Amino acid sequence: MHTSSISTEILVIGGGATGTGVAWDAALRGFRTILVEKRDLTHGTTGRYHGLLHSGGRYVVKDPHSAVECIAENRILRRTHTHCIEDTGGFFVVTPEDEGDYPDRFVAACRETGVPCQEISVAEALRREPMLNPRISRVFEVPDGAADSFLATHATAQAARQAGARILIYHEVVGLLTEGGDGDKRVTGAVVRDTVSGESIHIHADLVINASGAWAGQLAGMAGVGVKIIPGKGVMVATNHRLVNSVINRCKMPSDGDILVPVHTVSIIGTTDEEVTDPENLVITAEEVQYMLAEGDKLVPGLSAARIVRAWAGVRPLYQEGFSGDSRDATRSLTLLDHKARDGVQGFLTITGGKWTTFRMMAEKTVDRACEHLGVERTCTTATTPVPGIEQGHYWLGHRLHEVEEEQLQGGLVCECELVTRQMVESAARRNPTVTLDDLRRDVRLGMGPCQGGFCTYRAVGILHEIGRERHDPDFVLEGESDAEDWEVAYLQSPAESSRGHSITEHATPDAIPDTPLPTRSPAIDQRSPVSNPNLLLRDFLQERWKGVLPVLWGRQLKQERLDELIYLSLMNADHLPDDEAQSPLTGFYRAS
Amino acid sequence: MNDLIVIGSGLAGLTAAYSAVKAGLSVKIIAKGMGITHWHAGTIDVLGYAAKGKGVARPLEASGDLPDEHPYQLLDEKGLATALTEFAALTAEMGLPYTGAQTAGDNLWLPSPVGAARPAFLAPAGQAGGDLSTGQPLLIVGIEGMRDFYPKLIAENLAKQGHSARHAFLPLSLFTQRHDITTLQLAKLVEEPARLSPLADALIRIVQPGERIGLPAVLGFENHPAVLARLTEATHAPVFEIPTLPPSVPGIRLHTRLRRRLEAMGVRVEIGMEAISFGAEGERILWVETETSSRPLRHRAANFLLATGGILGGGIHSDHTGRAWEVVFDLPLTIPQERSGWFRPHFLDGGGQPVFRGGVPVNANFQPIRPEGGPVYANLWAAGGGLSGADSIRERSVEGIALSTGGAVASLLASNPVK
User: Fold this and answer.
1) Residue finishing a domain among B211, B244, B277
2) Are B91 and B79 in contact (CB under 8 A)?
3) Which of A89, A222, B78, B147 is 20 to 30 A away from residue B334, measured at CA?
4) Under a CB-based contact definition with an 8 Å cutoff, are residues B287 and B299 in contact?
5) In tens digits, what is the pLDDT along chain B, a chain of 419 residues?
6) One domain for residues B86 and B97
7) Does the pLDDT of residue A521 top 80, yes or no?
């Protein structure tokens, strides 16, 4: 296979919130920066969390240092990532099971840490959240919010690109480049494999930053450095609609199943915390789901009878030097490991721990240290630099419906559950490096509603296939990665903007080959790319959706799944398509079970 | 009092009622909804894939490939063939003729909405024209802006399988000035002569000699046969339909005609009546109670046929504790009462998902039975998708099981009426 070689000042490994935050910060400070991510942006823990923008309230008693970080960042992100956040507000409620003096300690700790907290009457809380357990005794209001971590990461990545960074997704680090030996070792870059084309790239860097989250230990191991991540698995369960419009927390020591977060069209109940050995192939048991539902019933009675659309798990990349104990008790604070000071290995930093809410601060501290290593003094500006798209204001439930109705876009809906239009799918595929349908799901929420892809999977495959560029298209040029302007995600989630910004493909004449001046940069619509095979896109997405519904199939959702079988097996015969045996480069991700 | 009350208005319920009435019984149908006919292709799938996904060429001769507990194994030797012959005759009488493959007894292999070859035993004439057993080149024609049909994808996959296929799009403006349209709206529009002529003209311009034309299954409701004939005549090319995402226009055509036929024979088909409870005395069911918007009603009959379907049809429900139950009579089921045993890790696993193989176990007379053997009630029968022993969607036998088991119950009742 062809191997190329490039060099940069800073190489960031990991395309989650932290890694993209680091790339953004580094690029803004003028460093030549490359970020590599082995799958899609947010494929790891960032894309698998409950979406809570912490006020800090959850940690005021147990981990006050984290609480202080949270409230500071909460205020900043509302300005820099406005459209990625819904200003839901949050309640801490005392249920009949929550005994003791915790509520009073909570109030005192809020005061000490500076987390705004106001007690409101139970009647007022029930007026605002009628589904809430009426037997609660006290309610405290805090400035929690709900975050769209997919959109926020994409927006941060775009901001990084605008500042000059290169973002390479589906590029997996297969080895680190090092020089010197014991006591005088230096990391000088990484060998990266393009998982779509199979090509290898040597990326030489003055400094390598390991922001690979739950995989940080494995990565550090490539440099011979021991970093013991405490991988805390968290299980989350989503209901088919919103049960509450505010974040609801139990007012007690953080535990399993004690947060209910309204995110977009669903409510997410979270979460468990169990130490696991492998950050991939996470198993979700019936007991875990059962337990979460039972705990959820204490916040919203009847929650366990609601229709559950999906369950998933993420892994917290917790780190505590010399820690041994339950992962629930490991600190949520960020950890920046300077391997020069810690291990005598130069040119290498690891940033881990923390929470989504504190990703910007983690990036700031990391790049501060990077400046020291590179011998320059440059000030961080991310706290005052908004990412593209904030002019849309905070997200609010109903914004898509509003736009679809205002602009009469009903005819373009390919996903009725989440109100995704054909134009949104086309726009995301053309102006964003989509590789699989699961990437489109993260981009525009395709297939995330009650039918879990039953209708939109076929439609999205058909559309991507229709807009795919033919091999013989003379205008076809594979774009380089240097031009930052064409990657446009600020309005990824807006039906109206997608419809205004890009005309739909015209099929005026038979056999028309769609032609568009927009660069084709999505492997999913580049017919030279093996991943654009529509049959593999279809099969991989069906399996991906199946994986997430498997732990929650009963009642109506089981019936829904049977309808999906009727459609994809009996009506379409999708299990007997040509290329049935073919492997996409990504099949392994979904075949692993 | 009726001789028979059929609960459920899917294909099993409607055709069982038809056979029973023809045999002289008085029948009433009560149903919550209209069954899964509205979602499927409108074809009669008898058996496409046997154990481990093995393709079946001649479904009537494949019983050796089926497990002992399969509903087909309960039928008389000719039971399946007879049911299919009678159904074909009925559809011809109703003006919606269904046909089989050119070689009698073979499966048809019809283009699916993704361009795979889907096995069906009988199909409405309009779909049978797409049979891939013949080598005639295919022109797959889509309509711009239609969400539920992707001709380029179909043609490309057909070509990959060695068929000569290409695709084309027609503008939506041929039919309407609107920007959005559903399959059902299109099917109504196409029936108007003023829309049909421009469609025919557009097809004439793009079809090449020797091709057959595949269109989405929207070629009319009531006048479907006439629409099909008109297009075939105008284009001098065979025109056929490919099913779309649900709702299914061919399924609705079939359901509507069957229901109308039954009503013409004096059968009351009460849809919107959900059976919520029943009364029994000893071994006999006396009545079934239904819920309507006004008040509960009790329906008495000598015999009851349960044709409420399986998990998809609504005859079997389940909850998060892993309990699954039959919704009208709470009959014993063969579904594992533990969720951990319901599924396999892969959606497309050739063996299917175990939960969908379970259902209501019956004896050779199609009477629901207790785990230890004997019938649960002397005058209760079961047919269709709710039966145990087959994953009908996985093996492509949805309609074959419905027709043959419903037919078997009707003939049992006709030859040996319990009054």
Assistant:
1) B244
2) no
3) B78
4) yes
5) 899 999 999 999 999 999 999 999 999 999 999 999 999 999 999 999 987 778 999 999 998 899 999 999 999 999 999 999 999 999 999 999 999 999 999 999 999 999 999 999 999 999 999 999 999 999 999 998 899 999 999 999 999 999 999 999 999 999 888 877 899 999 999 999 899 999 999 999 999 999 999 999 999 999 999 999 999 999 999 999 999 999 999 999 999 999 999 999 999 999 999 999 999 999 999 999 998 777 889 999 999 999 999 999 999 999 988 899 999 999 999 999 888 889 998 898 888 999 999 999 999 999 999 999 899 999 999 999 999 999 999 999 999 999 999 999 999 999 876 55
6) no
7) no
Instruction: For residue B304, give its domain range.
Output: 2-90+252-415
B384 touches chain A (CB under 8 A): no
Torsion sign (Cα): B313, B318, B319, B320: negative
Q: Could you give the 3-state DSSP secondary structure of residue A6?
A: strand
Q: Which of B143, B348, B355 to mutate to test the interface with A (most CBs of A within 10 A)?
A: B348
| Single-letter amino acid, residue A413 | L
Q: B331 CB near a chain A CB, below 8 Å?
A: no
Specify the DSSP element, H or E, that contains B278. Answer: strand B274-281
Say whether both B151 and B190 belong to one domain.
yes
Same domain? B270 vs B310: yes
Which of A239, A452, A562, A590 to mutate: most B Cβ within 10 Å? A562
Tell me: do B181 and B84 sit in the same domain.
no
CA-angle at B165, arms to B164 and B167, nearest 5°:
160
Out of A304, A562, A569, the one facing B320 most closely (by C-beta) is A304
Write the CATH number of the domain with boundaries A85-143+231-314. 3.30.9.10
| Residue of A410, A510, A570 with shortest CB distance to B396 | A570
pLDDT digits (tens, 9 = 90+) for A265-275: 999 998 888 88
Distance CA A211, CA A21 (A): 10
Of B45, B144, B318, the CB nearest to A507: B144
B-contacting residues of A 385-444, CB under 8 Å?
408, 410-414, 422
Report CB contact under 8 Å: A573, B117. Answer: yes
The domain that holds B50 is classified in CATH as: 3.50.50.60
- Residues in A closer than 8 angstroms to B121, CB to CB, are none
Domains in chain A: boundaries? 85-143+231-314, 398-591
Cα separation of A236 and B208, whole Å? 56
Q: What is the pLDDT of residue B54?
A: 83
Say if residue B74 is in the same domain as residue B60: yes
Mean pLDDT confidence for A427-435: 84
Looking at the 3D structure of chain B, how many domains does it have?
2
Alpha-carbon distance of A415 to A396, in angstroms, equals 19
**Are B207 and B289 in a shared domain?**
no
CB contact under 8 A, B346 and A304: no
Whether B389 contacts chain A with CB within 8 A? no
- Same domain membership, residue B45 and residue B109: no
Question: pLDDT (tens digit, 9 = 90+) per residue, A289-325?
Answer: 999 999 999 999 999 999 999 999 999 998 877 767 7
The residues, ordered by sequence, that sit 6+ positions from A154 with a Cβ below 8 Å of its Cβ are: A41, A42, A432, A443, A489, A492
**What's the pLDDT tens digit per position in A19-49?**
999 999 999 999 999 999 999 999 999 999 9
Q: Which of residues 248-287 of B touch A (CB under 8 A)?
A: none
- In sequence order, the β-bridge partners of residue A268 are A238, A261
Q: Do B287 and B344 sit in the same domain of this protein? A: yes
Report the residue count for chain A: 593
Closest Cα to residue A449, out of A237, A241, A289, A236? A241
Measured CA to CA, the distance from residue A234 to residue A51 in angstroms comes to 13
Chain A residues touching B178 at Cβ < 8 A: 411
Residue of B nearest to A308 (CA): B320
Q: How far is B57 from chain A (nearest CA, A)?
A: 15
